[in-house]
Amino acid sequence: MNIPGTPMISRRGALIVGAAAAAAVSTTAPAAAAPADASAPAVPLTRVTLKVNGEAHTLELDTRTTLLDALREHLHLTGTKKGCDHGQCGACTVIVDGRRINACLTLAVMHEGAQVTTIEGLGTPQRMHPLQAAFVKHDGYQCGYCTPGQICSAVAVLDEIKRGVPSHVSPDLTARPLLSAEELRERMSGNICRCGAYSNILDAITEVAGSRA
């Protein structure tokens, strides 16, 4: 209905004016920011000392920090890789107190005083560990992402066999396991190579295992 004395406004014009007004209000009147929750607890931090590659490090960490993130983000030892972050690929394998573990599945605070060996602690380009040299010789890598975990795992595998630790395929649980391809494949099965360099990896480990037998 038109009120006498006022200009005629079409329905379309009214909609345009209304939309413009709404846009102006939304840009000139920002929503109030949510007040900070003063009662929120602080991030829990604790000190943990790790002996990594022969050197002691004392870190102040969120108690939820994984060993993997402590190594990569706090100690900047990025040789250890974050792959699946669910303990399924083995890219994060390191050696803790002589045993190989998936660093993504354990908290750093669980390893107070532990001896941790990463790929950086096994050897250098100038003085490579025998398994590092064998991986190069046998082309046991392609993209190389899984290689640090593969090598750390292989070092621990040879130590397991030397100590007589059986695997699921060991025929005699009371005798020293054989240095067989079947044993090595079983023990390395937790380390995934998406490039498929498994035969070359096996050749590298077999060579080093044979030299130590």
Automatic annotation (TrEMBL):
Keywords: Iron, Metal-binding, Oxidoreductase, Signal
InterPro entries: 2Fe-2S-bd, 2Fe-2S-bd_dom_sf, 2Fe-2S_ferredoxin-like_sf, 2Fe-2S_ferredoxin-type, 2Fe2S_fd_BS, Aldehyde_Oxdr_Iron-Sulfur, Beta-grasp_dom_sf, TAT_signal
Pfam families: Fer2, Fer2_2
Signal sequence extent: 1-33
CDD domains cross-referenced by the UniProt entry: fer2
Record-annotated 2Fe-2S ferredoxin-type domain positions: 46-122
PANTHER family for the chain: ALDEHYDE OXIDOREDUCTASE IRON-SULFUR-BINDING SUBUNIT PAOA, OXIDOREDUCTASE, IRON-SULPHUR BINDING SUBUNIT-RELATED-RELATED
Protein name, entry field: Xanthine dehydrogenase YagT iron-sulfur-binding subunit
Naturally occurring in which organism (per UniProt): Variovorax soli
